[in-house]
C-alpha cells in the first residue's frame, strides 16, 4: 500500500474540520439569538446565543425559559411565549449577566438548580441557587450554598 504523507495530512485536516463543524452546530437546528431585552434577532452581532431552553407551564399558559450567552460568556435569563414571542428578562437580578457554570432542571417542571461563577476564570467564588418558576412572572430565587472553585 502506497500512502503519501500529503494524503494523510489532508485526511487529518478534513477530519478536524468535520469534527469542529459537528461540535459547533447544535443538534436541535440553527442557532437562535436574542438581544438584551430577550427579543429574537437574526444578526449574531452584539447578541446573546440561546444555550438552554425549557418549555414550562403556569396556570395553563405556555412559556419558554431560556438562558442566552453573550460573546464573553456572561448570560441572561429570558421568559418568552413560544417561538420567542413577547420576550422579557426574567426578574432575577442576582443571575442576570453572570457566568453560569451549570443549569439543571429539578424533578418539578418549573424548578432549576443554577451554579453561578462570580468571574470568568479559575478559583472564583461560586454559588448555587434554586430558581422556582411556578409563577414565572414572579420567580422565587434562593441561594443554597457558596464555595470557591478549586480548579
Please give the radius of gyration in angstroms.
Answer: 19 Å
Give the overall pLDDT as a whole number: 84
- Sheet with the most strands, sense and barrel status: 10 strands, antiparallel
Helix content: 10-25%
- Structural class per helix/strand content? mainly beta
How far is it from the N-terminal to the C-terminal residue, by CA?
48 Å
**Percent of residues in β-strands:** over 45%
Number of strands: 10
| Oligomer status | single chain
Contiguous uncertain segments of 5+ residues = 3-27
Outline? globular
Give the count of helical stretches: 1
Q: Can you write the helix and strand succession as a string?
A: HEEEEEEEEEE
What does it look like?
By secondary structure, the chain is mainly beta. The protein has one helix and ten strands. Strands 1, 2, 3, 4, 5, 6, 7, 8, 9 and 10 form a ten-stranded antiparallel beta sheet that branches. Strand 7 and strand 8 (111-117) form a beta hairpin.
Topology at a glance:
Layout: H1 5-24, E1 33-34, E2 40-41, E3 48-58, E4 61-69, E5 74-81, E6 85-89, E7 98-105, E8 111-117, E9 125-132, E10 140-148
Antiparallel strand pairs: 1-2, 1-3, 3-4, 4-5, 5-6, 5-7, 7-8, 8-9, 9-10
Keyword list:
46% strand, mainly beta, 151 residues
Task: Offer a concise description of the structure.
The protein has one helix and ten strands, in the order αββββββββββ. It has one helix at about 5-25, and strands at about 35, 40, 50-60, 60-70, 75-80, 85-90, 100-105, 110-115, 125-130, 140-150.
Amino acid at each position: 500500500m502506497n500512502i503519501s504523507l500529503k494524503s494523510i495530512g489532508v485526511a487529518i485536516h478534513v477530519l478536524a474540520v468535520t469534527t469542529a463543524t459537528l461540535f459547533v452546530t447544535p443538534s436541535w437546528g440553527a442557532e437562535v439569538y436574542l438581544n438584551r431585552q430577550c427579543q429574537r434577532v437574526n444578526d449574531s452581532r452584539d447578541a446573546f446565543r440561546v444555550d438552554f431552553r425549557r418549555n414550562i407551564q403556569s396556570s395553563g399558559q405556555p412559556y419558554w425559559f431560556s438562558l442566552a450567552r453573550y460573546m464573553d460568556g456572561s448570560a441572561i435569563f429570558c421568559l418568552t411565549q413560544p417561538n420567542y414571542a413577547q420576550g422579557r428578562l426574567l426578574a432575577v437580578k442576582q443571575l442576570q449577566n453572570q457566568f453560569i457554570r451549570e443549569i439543571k432542571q429539578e424533578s418539578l417542571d418549573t424548578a432549576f438548580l443554577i451554579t453561578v461563577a462570580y468571574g470568568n476564570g479559575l478559583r472564583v467564588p461560586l454559588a448555587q441557587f434554586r430558581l422556582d418558576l411556578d409563577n414565572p412572572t414572579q420567580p422565587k430565587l434562593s441561594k443554597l450554598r457558596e464555595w470557591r472553585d478549586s480548579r
